[in-house]
Write a structure and sequence with these properties.
The structure is a homodimer of 411-residue chains. By secondary structure, chain A is α/β, with parallel strands linked by helices. In chain A, 36% of the residues lie in helices and 14% in strands. Chain A has helices spanning 7-10, 16-30, 50-62, 79-90, 108-114, 133-142, 196-208, 249-252, 280-291, 297-304, 309-335, 359-370, 396-408; strands spanning 37-38, 102-105, 125-129, 158-162, 180-184, 212-216, 242-247, 260-263, 269-271, 277-279, 340-342, 348-352, 372-373, 375-376, 387-391. In chain A, the strands form four sheets. Chain A has a seven-stranded mixed sheet with strand order 2-8-7-6-5-3-4, sandwiched between helices. In chain A, strands 11-12-15-14 form a four-stranded antiparallel sheet. A two-stranded parallel ribbon of chain A has the order 1-13. In chain A, helix 5 (108-114) runs parallel beside helix 6 (133-142). The interface between A and B is large, with 82 and 82 residues.
């Protein structure tokens, strides 16, 4: 009989968002008059900016005419977009990344999952904790995570690096050497960042230990504090130890459009089991040309428009809108006596539960008393217990309503 | 140091299309006045149909307005599209497939590559030969192909099933039992089909041998002969042994839009190493929710429009256009004394090279004497030697010009 990949059976069903949905719908049924405000899910609420919509209309017209029709495009993405990214996101910021090191895809989640194809299943993986679950689950599927502990939900071959108020959300360097280190800054879910010296320490560690950093900077456009690195390639030496994942989802509301990109510098190498040094860039190119057929032409045209002066202005406006939400939430939650992290350089607020409540207990209080849905921190890993995540992605009206309910709250 | 997936190093660089491009550009440089006609690449030339373009414009407007904006969609695809597919492609043809068995993706190539995540690396794989190279290369990356033979280009753990004029392009059932069998009908590159009894034999074989058929029916809409199966699920028992891959690329010119779907019936099961029976449907759902974030909303809306009465009419018109090309090519090539296969139920013609020419020798003759670019059959596997592939996807004008050059040819 057909033998399957055993690793899938080890992965516990993820009940986080279905459990949230169930509790919310149970509550709504019992309290039909309650006006529930959802601050839990990381999806955006603002529409695409006009520049992107206009570009999308133009691209639709291209597809209607044989003279301008675009069929199969390059698997790596169109040059018009790779050039715009290389210029605006790297060159203009003094960072040395060339267009041929940029791979356009249908989104960072796909790339973060698919990148695992390149590495030996023996590799040891380190993640900060709490963590975006995709890093762990995709490695579990490939057999790199070992076995899960049913009580804690942690895996015995994954190296967890706690990131909590106790260490100011700056995880310590690993005690055991990992081959692959996932870093996400600005961080999901904690909303915290690393300073330049802090990130430099990770690059130094990776170079000294021949480890690879997978750097997820999906939220870089939310950074407001001067000097915080937007790209890991701002750090000397990162071209020799890091792959960077970026997304248009949160930058420009492309969650439903699907577009991201991955930067794989030419210097990156790994070893085969017989000791041959191979190019990670070449491997990713081979993976993408074999198992992917390029991102949608019309979506790439919409993204290109984000790099025009109007596009940049409109994107910045939307980000200011969300960050005003974040600022209001921070203020009101703090006034209510809660300890709040994040929300300054990221669209996420990471809130300590009061009085030793568990994250699910605090979730239930916020839902039942204040009709606000958050995400329990325990869903992001063991070190997420004792926190909840709020997002700044709701409308200003909903955020203001939630903020005033939270400000009046007694916990 | 970072250990990579060794299997990537085993895969020879594919020089097929780069070698074609090199020979064409060398010839064009030496003969600047030659008007070269390209009949080699499988990309379409007709624009999107008006119904799809209008839907794309409407969807672009949805994305401009907070009231109709669509962010993250379901990873499995929107119900509006899954319902339309289940109704038009299955229910209305008397086939039992439900919308929740349909998974929308960014294209069949991605799914055909990613489906391998579900299976043990020990599985034995069978392919018909000649073959779409993606089936072989993706299994080679996962370690299922064994080692390549540098002379023949074939892999020692892949079971090759020759499909040639000698067996009327109906490959014999394997002598060794495979776990996974790739079938593509209408076939790329041969343009041939399987009759219902021939396909039923494969389903019977798979059921008797607990094998899984991966059925690629990307070209089903080109079938003109009544009674030829459009879906493997027309065959009794296929729900228990087959996954079907479909694409909007050739049906509706979506090669640059990126959309396809994969049907995974609920009955399909596999075994873990400890003998537990698991659902392949559940595994694929888990894979897609973890490593994929849904196809673009605007592209899904464009695809939905293909299922309206105008959409269906317009799609059928485009297919008739290409099939008129196929028919003309068949006629002129046959008149020129060549033996031609395919082109009746598929947009591909598979042409026997005359006088024992190798496929590359015949490629060179067609290029240098008649300024026509084809694809050498050897690029599709050992049994492709002695053939070339022509596509019907060019414009009617280019096809007519090529056909009249070919008709006058002396080989």
């Amino acid at each position: 009989m057909l033998r399957v990949n055993d690793n899938f059976s080890l992965i516990p069903q993820s009940y986080l968002f279905s459990e949230i949905a169930k509790r919310v719908s149970d509550f709504q049924r019992a309290n039909p008059e309650a006006r529930i405000i959802r601050m839990g899910i990381g999806d955006v609420s603002r529409p695409l900016c006009p520049a992107a919509v206009e570009a999308l209309h133009r691209a639709a017209d291209h597809q209607a005419d044989p003279a301008t029709f675009h069929g199969y495009g390059p698997e790596q993405g169109y040059e018009f977009l790779r050039n715009a990214i290389a210029r605006s996101d790297y060159h203009d910021r003094g960072i040395d990344i060339t267009p041929d090191e940029i791979f356009i895809s249908d989104g960072a989640k796909s790339d973060l999952g698919n990148i695992g194809d390149l590495f030996s299943t023996d590799c040891r993986v380190a993640v900060t904790d709490p963590v975006y679950p995709v890093y762990v689950d995709t490695n579990a599927m490939a057999g790199r995570a070992g076995r899960p502990d049913s009580a804690s939900g942690s895996w015995d071959r994954i190296i967890y690096l706690p990131s909590t108020a106790e260490n100011d959300f700056v995880p310590a360097l690993p005690l055991q050497r990992p081959d692959i280190i996932y870093l996400c800054y600005p961080n999901n879910p904690t909303g915290t960042v690393l300073t330049r010296p802090q990130l430099a320490q990770w690059v130094e560690y990776a170079l000294a230990n021949s480890a690879l950093i997978l750097f997820d900077s999906a939220y870089e456009s939310y950074i407001t504090t001067p000097g915080i690195p937007h790209s890991i390639y701002e750090i000397e030496g990162a071209r020799r130890c890091a792959i960077e994942f970026r997304s248009f989802s949160k930058t420009a509301g492309f969650t439903g459009m699907r577009l991201g990109y991955t930067v794989v510098p030419r210097e990156l190498t790994g070893l085969t089991s017989d000791g041959t040094q191979v190019s990670i860039h070449q491997m990713w190119l081979r993976r993408q040309t074999t198992k992917f057929n390029g991102a949608s032409y019309v979506v790439q045209r919409a993204a290109e428009a984000l790099f025009t002066p109007e596009g940049k202005r409109q994107v910045a406006e939307t980000i200011r809108y969300y960050m005003a939400n974040a600022s209001l939430l921070r203020q009101k939650l703090t006034e209510a006596g809660l300890k709040v992290y994040g929300g300054i350089d990221a669209p996420y607020l990471w809130v300590k539960t009061p009085d030793g409540y568990s994250s699910w207990e605090f979730f239930d209080i916020l839902l039942s008393k204040y009709h606000i849905v958050v995400t329990p921190g325990a869903g992001f890993g063991p070190a997420g217990e004792g926190y909840v995540r709020l997002t700044a992605f709701s409308s200003a009206e909903a955020t203001a309503a939630a903020a005033s309910r939270l400000a009046e709250a007694k916990y």
